[in-house]
User: Which sequence fits this backbone?
């Protein structure tokens, strides 16, 4: 299961394998800000508090946009992070500013 926390809307959903965190948030009506969907604006930044092992590895766009310390702490870009397997995942939208 995938627990998604937007600014005000929180939902637990059955994840769609192969789709990004952002796509799943939008599909489920969660208030999850974004702009570029290409890994540039970081408006979709999120914190993975559980289940990183079920997600894709950080891609080049994430390494370019996020600091290594952010990646270490579990921050990812929602538009670049793909759910690869089902499992217990908890993801909160954490942009730099709302
Ligand atoms: S929407 Fe711009 S980095 Fe994800």
Assistant:
């Amino acid at each position: 299961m995938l627990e998604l926390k937007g600014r005000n809307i929180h939902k637990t959903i059955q994840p769609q394998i192969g789709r990004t965190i952002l796509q799943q948030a939008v599909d489920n009506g969660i208030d999850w800000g974004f702009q570029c969907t290409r890994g540039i604006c970081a408006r979709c930044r999120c914190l993975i508090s559980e289940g990183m092992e079920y997600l894709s590895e950080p891609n080049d766009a994430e390494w370019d946009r996020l600091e290594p310390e952010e990646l270490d702490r579990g921050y990812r870009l929602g538009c670049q992070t793909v759910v690869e397997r089902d499992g217990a995942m908890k993801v909160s939208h954490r942009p730099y500013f709302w």
Notes: Helices lie at 21-27, 60-65, 68-73. The chain has one domain: 2-87.
